[in-house]
Amino acid sequence: MKAFQAINIDLNKREVISFVGGGGKTTTMFKLAEELREAGKKVLVTTTTAIFCPHKGIYDYFSLTNNEHPLKVLKKTKDANIYILGREITQENKLLGLQPEDVTMLYEEKEFDYILVEADGSKRKPIKAPADHEPVIPSNTAKTIGIIGLDALNKPINNDWVHREKLFSELTGKAIGDRIDIKTIVKLIIDSQGLFKNTSPSSEKYLILNKADNTKRENLGKAIMEEFKKWETPLTAGIIAAMEAEEEYIKWRGGF
Asked: Gene3D superfamilies under this entry (predicted)?
């Protein structure tokens, strides 16, 4: 199974897809972009916050707006399948992204088949709690992909493993230093201020438990999915994956 199949992408339907959480957002976003390129689709990859600049091998064309209108910049680009568009590059080599209304405008202009948006940051930590100002999800997002790294399970709630550990502690009711167990992860996912915060009610919600790169983690992921059966959940589907793998990166998929 491919990632686009796991999140129910109809290759004949244009969509905006946003990625939130931690533990592999950028990897997952570009894995999906590559699949869509292979299907002959035109894809814009961007962010509404900031991401580390992608390396050249994973895109076809890279543009910066530099205070120009995004559509004007894109009109100058060559024909390609995967475009990167942002405002500017910082001294830390981060790509600053577009405003959410710019994403909406570009979708309405029908320049792209798919627009993939990294909608919050995690400082490369496997799990996080969102701050007041995040995530920044475009209003016309059709699918929101929430990602958690399974390497966070059984780790302590601290800055080594959790982005915004104080907010995470408050949200989940666990103390700083406590271990992240299955119920803690479920609480983060189902809480209205948690993983899928600011997601439109009309957006489909997909949970990806990433980094299932061994049998133990895959089984832990299945245990988390099993726990969801005790709760009413807004999720369309749950996915266990190892997105850095070249093949067979979708390990399990199920509905709720």
From this structure: P-loop containing nucleotide triphosphate hydrolases
